[in-house]
Design a protein that fits this description.
This protein is 44% helix and 8% strand. The radius of gyration is 27 Å and the shape is globular. Helix 3 links the parallel strand 1 and strand 2. It has 23 helices and twelve strands. The strands form four sheets. A five-stranded mixed sheet has the order 2-1-3-10-4. It starts with 30 loop residues before the first helix and ends with a helix.
Length: 609
Amino acid sequence: MKKKGVAILLATAMLATLVAGCGNDSSSGSGAQNSDSESSAAENTESEGTADDAESADADSAQADEGDVPTIVYAHTGKASADMDVWPPDFIKQMQDEIGVKLELIQITEEQFDLALASGNATFDIVNCTKYKEPQVLNANMAVCLDDYMDIAPNIAKFEDRNNLVREFLSNGEGKLYFTRCQVGPEIAGTELWDAYVVRWDWYKELGCPPINSDEDYFDVLQQMLDAHPTNDNGGPTYGLGQYVGTGLWSWYVSKNYNLGYSENYVPGLQVELATGNVYNSYTDDESAFWQSMEFFNKAWNRGLCDPDFFIMKGDDLNAKVVQGTYAGALRTWDVGSYYWEQMQQDPDTVKGYMSVVPENGSISGGFGSNPIAGWENNSIFIYSGCKNIEKAVQVLDYMHNEDNLRTYYSGFEGVHWDYDENNVPALTEEGRKLFANGGDAMAQAGIAGSSTGGWLNYWCAYSGSVLHSDGGKLNLTYTPEALADTLNPLQKDYSDYYQVAYPAQVSENQVAAGIATDRSMDNKDLYMLLTEVPEDIGTKKTQIEGLLEGYIPDLVMAATQEEYEEIKAKVIEECKSLGSDELFAWSKEAYDNAVKAYSDAKAKYGIK
């Protein structure tokens, strides 16, 4: 048991300065510091021998000391909001003090990253790049070979299975380690599900919580709610479902994709049914998530359950209606979460909000359980070869591979937010339980991970929070059933009490444990490492086909009869084929099969279970 005795400093602002170049070396400070030094020197010359002389000397000395601390700039590519106050202050202060660096975070766009690749110059020391960029990074010689620094990176070295897979598939055939990857280990359900059948919980309870075991059951429940509540909080009409546009096909099929237990697209135009291994053409097979979604929406539309503005609302438009209590259901809980928070301002104990109902028959797959050996598929982290402080940058990466540091990041500081009980089992303290139960601002002020200000660092954590520490407890102690139960708001608590579970997601977890439902444990996200190149003609086909499908969505959804729907569907599929959907699928199927074999061979080569 290690006691760090870290004081909680409650810093309120961190790391707002954007540097113009790579991290400073030990002999230079920022431009602002140099300007201040020159000004002080001039004053000293003019007032030599005065009492101000000693004060100026002290200021110069302090600036020199600050200049001795190198700055490491971490660039985050396209994963978070515009809010730049993203560091958990106390944890970052601990990291800075222990390594002897100053950390700064910048957000860069894909275009800025591509420009850095093209020019060979970068404004960062460490960066996470999105998938498919790794070969370009290596071709541009922009990544440091981490194998050369393993003597100062003992924690990175411990990730043998991940490192070997990365060497095998992300080194342009060199067999060297240029990238680390984050969130190795299983993903948990968390407090509640976002998909399944989302209902306005207080209205659903008024109906006696009738079982929802199919889309038709869901439509019946939505209609009953609308009959009972024809107007919203502002006196306007209510609808069963709202939808927003602007994300291509994604917002139309993602919920059904997860409910069916399908993979995300490993390669364009191909979906895998995780439980069976069956593969489907995303654009032309009846079983695909897109066509299953279109059938769902067409039925909902013809039953009068859809907002008439279905095809024109942006996210903000949808939210404006959500906060008025316009909808009886939703496609995803995050679409309608603002309604509950608005209601809480008026009544902290309210249960007016939305929750996901899981079918009793287990017909919806749990959206959790993937267990990547090599971590999240969309984040390969490397150190820029032009970094002036490579060893310090390596130490920063290594810091986020250490289980003790990750326990602090996820769970707070030992002896304050968590401690070992009389049985030497790690658990949240009373202060820690209160902190995580309060959420949001309280966690941000304490400077640990669970807050919105700490979210970006999840992409830097080598292990997921559900991985076990060597002491036997999870790295994230808020993932225990007891801790999850502590964090429930009144709406979640009411839901949990009704279903007699500790927290809402446990309904689905129990079904998976009983063999009634499936989860995403067969979702092999490691395959993304192997599927890094999409030929230009395949990418063009994908863009053209998805644009075609998106254009036909209103016609498909609003088709008045089953016969009309089938006619439009047949026409759309024929046009997809004329754009090359069969050829695209043939390429994708071969690429997928080759990747599965190569991955299996690599696991055998390195003795990975």
